[in-house]
Amino acid sequence: MLDTLTQRLAKVVKTMRGQARITEENSKEMLREVRLALLEADVALPVVRELTNRIKEKALGEEVVGSLNPGQVLVSIVQRELTAVIGGDLPEKEREINLACTPPAIILLAGLQGAGKTTTAGKLARWLIRNQKKKVLTVSADVYRPAAIEQLKTVSEQAGAEFFPSTTDQKPLDIAAAALDYAKRHFFDVLIVDTAGRLSIDERMMQEASDLSAFLKPIETFFVVDAMVGQDAINTAKVFNDRLPLTGIILTKVDGDSRGGAALSVRQVTGKPIKFIGTGEKLDGFDTFNPEAMASRILGMGDIVALVRDVTSNIDAEKAKKIADRVRKSGRLDLNDFREQMIQMRGMGSMSSLIDKLPAAMQEAAAKQNVSDADADRMIRRTIGIIDSMTPAERHHPELIKASRKRRIAAGAGLPVQEVNKLLKQYDQMTEVMKRMKKGGLSKLLRMAGG
Ligand code: GDP
Q1: ipTM score of the complex?
Q2: 67 and 162 inside one domain
Q3: Where does the SRP54-type proteins GTP-binding domain start and stop, copy by copy (predicted)?
Q4: In angstroms, rounded to a whole number, what is the distance separating the alpha carbons of residues 263 and 269?
């Protein structure tokens, strides 16, 4: 599935090549593909609608910068909007765990059975102990499943947290009261309370969780939800959000083959931030939530946003425009322009860092050409070295360079004469391409990577 999505968007990027700006007309197909991509990624229909509208609105007003084509710009808008919708629009502070209260800070975990609550309790304990140097106590109020209590004991021990024992003949509120009392007397920083889950929403379970919440007044109440359940997550999230003062969401099993579209919908439906993600069965499979990375994952794209950022920040727009203007006028570019472009390419970072940011399908194409970082960098440095050994007149009219001058230039650059020949040949080819395109060489390069 991941492949189809990537291909879908890569195809759009390709079909929009050569178009100067994003219009109502050419954005249509792109938006259609985006809509399908999101639906396939399990994003709920109303959310898809809202998102595509937002994207459309933004896209029509967007300028297409220098070397990017409208398709690439559109993809970056999609990713930006997605990122915003799933939490990127929130201040960092609101995405972080809140422990600012008189200790112990109580964290209540709620969710359906199998969502990963107990595993998450262990993961969160481990994270708090390692990253925040907290003293953590865990307790299970799941009086229906002795195995769940036992499992919490196991993961707590693995995490290095203390486990407060409970039994199935106790009442959840009594367990909570005893654990809280113990946590206070032994100066715990954090008390994590695991609650009972059912396979589907059940009134008794909701009431119990709600009573626990009213009694404990937790500083954080996390809704733990399995990313693999897709659209079902929306209804569950609604019910939990209505009955509990949720403060955040923990999305588990993000390592599964689901696209994580649930993440987007759950955030929209509850209006609560996703704070953590579970990325594996083991306790270290846990991380704080990064909206940008999740948006990439949902779209199956590489980090287009970072690529756009690099391109726009590193290319001197003025210089690029001058070169383009000159090429347009004379229909050719000289070696000074060539050199300028080489320098700009180096400024954009390593070849592999650029390639990393391309979507998977494009990465494959780039890999086929076998460009290693070292190769690319060496090639660029050599080229600049050779051009630097030429006279200004030669740079301007490379066709005037005779054999004897080639030898001198090679000697000046400390390279064999073949290298000079190679460069001049490349220059000829590039001039040819330029003539046909009458556009910046760098954009050609990016387009080749895009195709
Ligand atoms: P609970 O019923 O909500 O307490 O769920 P559990 O903690 O017992 O988890 C249910 C199953 O999901 C277990 O087999 C866990 O190992 C698994 N699980 C939990 N979190 C993750 C995760 O982030 N990734 C993967 N792959 N499996 C997970």
Answers
A1: 0.98
A2: no
A3: 273-286
A4: 10
Longest dimension (CA), the chain: 97
Instruction: Walk along the chain (451 residues) and give the pLDDT tens digit of each residue.
Output: 344 455 666 666 666 666 667 777 777 877 887 787 777 767 777 778 888 888 888 877 666 555 566 666 777 787 788 888 888 888 888 899 999 999 999 999 999 999 999 999 999 999 999 999 999 999 999 999 899 999 999 999 999 999 999 999 999 999 999 999 999 999 999 999 999 988 777 888 899 999 999 999 999 999 999 887 767 778 889 999 999 999 999 999 887 756 566 767 888 889 899 999 998 999 999 999 988 877 777 665 444 444 444 444 444 555 556 665 665 566 566 787 777 766 666 655 555 555 554 544 445 545 555 555 566 667 777 888 888 888 888 888 888 888 889 998 988 888 889 989 988 887 777 666 555 544 444 444 444 433 3
Termini Cα distance of the chain: 21
Tell how far the Cα of 120 is from the centroid of ligand 1, in angstroms.
8
One domain for residues 108 and 86:
no
Sequence ranges of the binding site for GTP = 111-118, 194-198, 252-255
Ligand 1 centre to CA of 116 (Å) is 4
Q: Which residues are annotated as a binding site?
A: 111-118, 194-198, 252-255
Q: Which atom of ligand 1 is nearest to the CA of 142?
A: 4
Q: Whole-angstrom Cα distance, residue 141 to residue 205?
A: 11
Measured in Å, residue 152 CA sits from the centre of ligand 1 at 12
Output the CA 92–ligand 1 centroid distance in Å: 27
Is residue 300 included in any domain, yes or no?
A: no
- Do 79 and 99 lie in one domain? The reply is no
Atom number of ligand 1 nearest to Cα 278: 23
CB-CB contact of 50 with 267 (8 Å): no
Taking the C-alpha atoms of residue 201 and residue 239, their distance in angstroms, rounded to an integer, is 8
Residue minimizing CA distance to atom 12 of ligand 1: 116
Strands (E) located in 213-332: 220-226, 248-252, 274-278, 286-288
Which residues have CB under 6 Å of ligand 1?
Answer: 111, 113-119, 148, 197, 252-253, 255-256, 278-281, 285
- Could you tell me the CATH number of the domain that includes residue 234? 3.40.50.300
Q: Whose CA is nearest to atom 9 of ligand 1?
A: 116
Q: Are residues 269 and 323 in the same domain?
A: no
- Domain co-membership, 149 together with 79: no
Residues 394 and 269 in one domain: no
